[in-house]
């Protein structure tokens, strides 16, 4: 996993055991976090290994974790050292706190990001590898979802407090939002669902936004009432999330596996960028405008080819005119920069900086996640049965006649 | 009354004595993995469900209000249909052969009582209730939900497969109306204790008192009408009933 995001004015890249903080203009690294190879040396107390026999309790989560599974098993037995690697990284809205999750040794780390050097506040073990990470608006806690669909809250005031299980889905949760007023937690999963849960009464589901027909890979807040979602069913949809009403459906040329949204004008215009699955135009950039109180429309489209096909794109970040794309080329991490206004390779980056960033991050071979496992596998166990039933009935009839 | 196979080609696995399908053709092992991908056609949202296809004579002002989750061979579902002719009941069953049996059984019952129009108010869906309840039902639509003799999934690692677990109780509360009831019945005491502790821990449910439970007209029928229940009665085993109210 190579994670990248832009949080005005910093570009943040997490990969392997490092998080780099860059100036997006000239790609100068002004800060970095490097994790030790063994997290117990910085305070991680590993949970008692619980042997789980047979298939895991929730085998439907995408087999993407299969790459991590052998490692996890070894970790449980404690016989083989596992490479610690950063999974998700996120800032609190005021950028005072930074949270990151790891695999290898599964943990959630909380940093005070200011002043200059990030200061580790706490390190708490995770039961399972994280799938999404989000702070609440005031930064007092951070939510971690995992591959089995559970969502845990980690307190950021009592930084060593054990996590609280808030809610559970039946499949992997791909993204999570927390409304500005902290009244609703919005989660989306591999079973086509967007769920809106009351907070703090998380046992009470407020609504569902239903309509997607494949996994929902990304969510973003638009206004106080409206969210946008991206899905493997090749659509973007805008919802009133408290009523669950669909306000806009926009067809995409391919399944969407990641989505980022940037506000252009508050309550009015947004830039929505979508990473497309296995498509020649790797990234679609859409201008989304609110036309009336309850309606939205896409008013402009710009496709970014991003040399799709030549390398394996994993993730991207958006600034006001650039798209920073991470991915794998020949099993190595690669970073490329495009101009979001015309979809071409960005110009004006100082020579050598891209290479310097990569040299700083380069770890062992980087195998991108296989996203094909996100899609539901259809296997038909019904027509077979009905066919056999029909045959047996025919046979019985013939026996009676004969 | 004798219904022969010649009368209705679709009912050929039916007994010539009872006119009902014979269970021996529909046997299937009791366990199913509720988390795995299955081949289900499910609606994206409740308003996409064509209920008329399951209940051809349903009135426009009617909607499904009772759900038997994991209805098995449909014994209790049939009882519900008889006890509550004005209510629409749905049985949900994940196993292919078992749900097919219930479909054939209802078809035969409707056929046998075409003069009275009975059994038009029950139907069976092959689906994964753990995953797709919100796809079928609006918030607060259901009046009663039944979990009768659920798969105990004894192994600790499989407790997440149990039909009653912490995360799912919130989903059930979502489709249940306030004041709606959840009936649970099992012959496995450990599972009963598990169910009661999870339900009582959940802020949206309260358990009915023994007196309330015993005066509910459904209670005595729970002991008799499901096949699993009848088996337990035959074996003189224990039953553990618990009823909960959605707050």
TrEMBL record, chain A:
InterPro entries: Trm82, WD40/YVTN_repeat-like_dom_sf, WD40_repeat_dom_sf, WD40_rpt. It is found in: Cytoplasm; Nucleus. It comes from the Eukaryota. Residues 46-72 are annotated as: Disordered. One of its GO terms (cellular component) is tRNA methyltransferase complex. Its main location: cytoplasm. PANTHER family: TRNA (GUANINE-N(7)-)-METHYLTRANSFERASE NON-CATALYTIC SUBUNIT WDR4 (PTHR16288:SF0), WD40 REPEAT PROTEIN 4 (PTHR16288). Belongs to the WD repeat TRM82 family. This is tRNA (Guanine-N(7)-)-methyltransferase non-catalytic subunit wuho. It comes from Drosophila madeirensis (Fruit fly).
TrEMBL record, chain B:
S-adenosyl-L-methionine binds at residues 70, 93-94, 128-129, 148, 226-228. It is found in: Nucleus. Its EC number is 2.1.1.33. Pfam families: Methyltransf_4 (PF02390). Keywords: Methyltransferase, Nucleus, RNA-binding, S-adenosyl-L-methionine, Transferase, tRNA processing, tRNA-binding. One of its GO terms (cellular component) is tRNA (m7G46) methyltransferase complex. Pathway: tRNA modification; N(7)-methylguanine-tRNA biosynthesis. GO terms for molecular function: tRNA (guanine(46)-N7)-methyltransferase activity; tRNA binding. InterPro entries: SAM-dependent_MTases_sf, Trm8_euk, tRNA_(Gua-N-7)_MeTrfase_Trmb. It catalyses: guanosine(46) in tRNA + S-adenosyl-L-methionine = N(7)-methylguanosine(46) in tRNA + S-adenosyl-L-homocysteine. It comes from the Eukaryota. Catalyzes the formation of N(7)-methylguanine at position 46 (m7G46) in tRNA. Belongs to the class I-like SAM-binding methyltransferase superfamily. TrmB family. This is tRNA (guanine-N(7)-)-methyltransferase. It comes from Drosophila madeirensis (Fruit fly).
């Amino acid at each position: 996993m190579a994670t990248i995001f832009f949080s005005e004015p910093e570009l943040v890249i997490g990969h392997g055991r490092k998080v780099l903080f860059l100036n997006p203009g000239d790609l100068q690294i002004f800060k970095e976090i490097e994790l030790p190879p063994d997290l117990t040396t910085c305070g991680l107390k590993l949970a008692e290994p619980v042997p789980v026999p047979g298939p895991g309790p929730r085998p439907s989560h995408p087999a993407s974790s299969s790459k991590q599974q052998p490692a996890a098993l070894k970790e449980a037995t404690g016989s083989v050292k596992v490479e610690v690697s950063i999974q998700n990284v996120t800032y609190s809205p005021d950028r005072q706190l930074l949270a990151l999750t790891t695999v290898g040794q599964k943990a959630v780390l909380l940093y005070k990001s200011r002043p200059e050097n990030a200061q580790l506040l706490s390190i708490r073990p995770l039961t399972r590898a994280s799938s999404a990470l989000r702070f609440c608006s005031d930064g007092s806690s951070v939510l971690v979802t995992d591959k089995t669909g559970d969502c845990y809250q980690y307190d950021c005031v009592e930084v060593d407090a054990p996590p609280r299980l808030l809610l559970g889905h039946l499949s992997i949760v791909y993204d999570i939002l927390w409304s500005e007023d902290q009244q609703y937690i919005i989660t989306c999963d591999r079973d086509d669902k967007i769920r809106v849960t009351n907070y703090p009464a998380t046992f009470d589901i407020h609504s569902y936004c239903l309509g997607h027909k494949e996994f929902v890979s990304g969510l973003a807040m638009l206004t106080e009432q409206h969210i946008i979602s991206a899905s493997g069913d090749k659509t973007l949809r805008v919802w009133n999330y408290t009523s669950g009403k669909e306000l806009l459906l926009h067809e995409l040329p391919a399944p969407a596996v990641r989505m980022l949204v940037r506000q252009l004008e508050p309550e009015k215009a947004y830039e929505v960028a979508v990473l497309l699955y296995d498509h020649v135009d790797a990234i679609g950039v859409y201008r989304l405008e609110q036309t009336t109180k309850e309606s939205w429309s896409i008013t402009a489209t710009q496709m970014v080819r991003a040399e799709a096909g030549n390398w394996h794109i994993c993730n991207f970040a958006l600034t006001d005119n650039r798209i920073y794309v991470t991915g794998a080329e020949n099993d190595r991490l690669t970073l490329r920069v495009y101009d979001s206004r015309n979809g071409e390779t960005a110009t004006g980056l100082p020579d050598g900086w891209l290479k310097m960033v990569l040299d700083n991050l380069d770890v062992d071979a980087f195998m991108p996640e296989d996203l094909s496992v996100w899609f539901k596998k259809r296997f038909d166990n019904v027509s077979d049965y009905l066919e056999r039933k029909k045959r047996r009935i025919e046979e019985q009839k013939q026996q009676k006649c004969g | 009354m004798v219904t022969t196979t010649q009368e209705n080609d679709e009912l050929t696995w039916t007994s010539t004595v009872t006119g009902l399908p014979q269970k021996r053709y529909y046997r299937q092992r009791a366990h199913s993995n509720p988390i795995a991908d299955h081949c289900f056609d499910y609606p994206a949202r409740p308003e996409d469900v064509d209920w008329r296809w399951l209940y051809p004579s349903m009135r426009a002002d009617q909607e499904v209000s009772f759900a038997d989750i994991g209805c098995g061979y449909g014994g209790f579902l049939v009882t519900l249909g008889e006890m509550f002719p004005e209510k629409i009941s749905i049985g949900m069953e994940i196993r292919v052969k078992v749900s097919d049996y219930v479909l054939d059984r209802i078809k035969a019952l409707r056929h046998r009582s075409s003069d009275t129009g009975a059994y038009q108010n029950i139907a069976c869906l092959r689906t994964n209730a753990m995953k797709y309840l919100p796809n079928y039902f609006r918030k607060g639509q259901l009046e009663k939900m039944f979990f009768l003799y659920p798969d105990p999934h004894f192994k600790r690692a499989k407790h997440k497969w149990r039909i009653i677990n912490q995360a799912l109780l919130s989903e059930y509360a979502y489709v249940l109306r306030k004041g709606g009831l959840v009936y649970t019945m099992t012959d496995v005491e450990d599972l009963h204790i598990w169910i009661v502790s999870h339900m009582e821990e959940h802020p949206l449910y309260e358990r009915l008192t023994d007196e309330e439970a015993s005066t509910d007209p459904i209670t005595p029928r729970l002991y008799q009408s499901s096949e699993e229940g009848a088996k337990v009665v035959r074996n003189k085993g224990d039953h553990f009933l618990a009823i909960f109210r959605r707050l």
